[in-house]
Automatic annotation (TrEMBL):
NCBIfam families: guided_TnpB. This is Transposase. Residues 305-359 form the Cas12f1-like TNB domain. Residues 167-274 form the Probable transposase IS891/IS1136/IS1341 domain. It comes from Plantactinospora mayteni. The keyword Cytoplasm does not apply. In the C-terminal section; belongs to the transposase 35 family. Signal peptide: none annotated.
Length: 401
């Protein structure tokens, strides 16, 4: 048995703010959004503001502007801290864009408070300005929260996400390894068919209803510059509700599947697949319905929490390489070719099944001391510790001399 670990997690609860409390939250969000946009402007003028510089600018701005002093200073400081962290992350990670301006019509409200800015009394969330909001306590908090994020989703529902510490249940000692290859026809193909994640098509089932609501939105859309009608807003909300239901179903299925995989395997080799490019292809709709990113995130997060060995393997040449002898095919396999055949050893298997076994073989080479495996922590910053990422060389072409 592994010893229990004290970890930092988020507990999210639904909020039921009244009209007065909601107006106060939206007012605070307006001030914080203005500060965020001002910080973006500072970066566009050639400066690289740090949190310390932004804090000084905030102090000067609150001294000059009485309307800015009406907002919560804690929420405003946390907004600038979030911006500074996002800016630093954009410089460290290749391909990560700079923080953008938050527009009023498409940016959802999000406010963060530390212990100086909120409290929980009489099972209600107390915020600066005398704001008191009832909380739907679906479960008890394991410890006193250190911070809270209050945000609104696309349906207009408010939530509070508390940061707390809890003791994790010890994970059982298990043996065995599994390789995971991502796809569209089957969302996750593993080395063991019993752990495959099939394509469930939640968005496909509600596509007709969603299209009907989107046509209704198009009919009720007013000319550019005119305020939207109540009928348009009602249709928009109904469409968002249908889309969010499908997204929640995908997340639920991914969590159930990830728990099953993590509970039964000590080593999990995952294809480091980036589904972003599929959004520009003819498979964009089905790829979005498969929700590969959500399944991958759940699997890696649960594996690391349970203390499993999680390895991300680059997807290059995994489909072309024979998992039996390691020989790489000379030509790429088209998407229509669903069976892999090795010309060297005669091994035949499903295309995705062979790729999953190749991914597992690449990860298992690290046990023998090969410095060719990079751990998944570096790709998921919220997990915590950052480790080095040695580059993974290709499998040797056995049989070719």
């Amino acid at each position: 048995m592994l010893a229990g670990v004290d970890e930092v997690v988020r507990y999210t609860f639904r909020l039921r703010p009244g009209a007065t409390a909601e107006a106060a939250l939206l007012a605070d969000w307006g001030w914080c959004r203005w500060l965020w946009n001002e910080a973006v402007h500072q970066c566009r003028t050639g400066r690289r503001p740090t949190f310390g510089k932004l804090s000084k600018l905030l102090t000067e701005a609150r001294a000059r502007s009485s309307w800015l002093r009406d907002g919560s200073q804690v929420a405003q400081q946390q907004t600038l801290r979030t911006y500074a962290l996002a800016l630093q992350h954009s410089f460290r990670v290749k391909g990560r864009g700079r923080p953008r301006v938050k527009r009023l019509k498409d940016a959802l409200p999000s406010l963060e408070y530390t212990t100086r800015g909120f409290s929980i009394r009489e099972r209600r969330l107390r915020l600066p300005g005398g704001v008191s909001i009832p909380v739907v306590w679906s479960r008890e908090l394991p410890s006193d929260p250190t911070s809270v994020r209050v945000y609104q989703d696309c349906l207009g529902h408010w939530y509070a996400s508390f940061v707390v510490r809890r003791d994790t249940a010890p994970a059982p000692d298990v043996e065995g390894a599994i390789g995971v290859d991502w796809g569209v026809t089957t969302t996750a193909t593993t080395t063991d068919p019993a752990y495959d994640l099939p394509y469930l098509g939640h968005r496909k089932r509600c596509a007709a209803e969603l299209a009907k609501l989107q046509r209704r939105m198009a009919r009720r859309r007013r000319v550019k510059g005119a305020p939207p009608s109540s009928g348009y807003l009602r249709a928009k909300r109904q469409a968002a509700k249908v889309a969010k239901k499908a997204a929640r179903q995908n997340i639920h299925d991914a969590r159930v599947w990830a728990k099953k995989v993590v509970d039964d395997h000590a080593t999990i080799a995952v294809e480091d697949f980036k589904p972003k490019f599929l959004a520009r292809s003819r498979m964009a709709r089905k790829a979005a319905d498969a929700a590969i990113g959500a399944a991958k995130r759940e699997l890696v997060d649960r594996g690391l929490r349970a203390g499993r060995r999680v390895v991300l393997v680059p997807p290059a040449f995994t489909t072309m390489t024979c998992s039996q002898c390691g020989t790489r095919a000379k030509d790429r396999l088209g998407l229509g070719v669903r069976v892999f055949r090795c010309d060297t050893c005669g091994y035949t298997a499903g295309r995705d099944r062979n790729a999953a076994r190749t991914i597992l073989a690449t990860a298992e080479r690290g046990r023998a001391g090969a410095d060719d495996v990079r751990h998944a922590i570096t790709s998921f910053r919220e997990v915590g510790e950052v480790r080095s990422e040695p580059e993974i060389p290709r499998l040797p072409a056995v049989g070719k001399r």
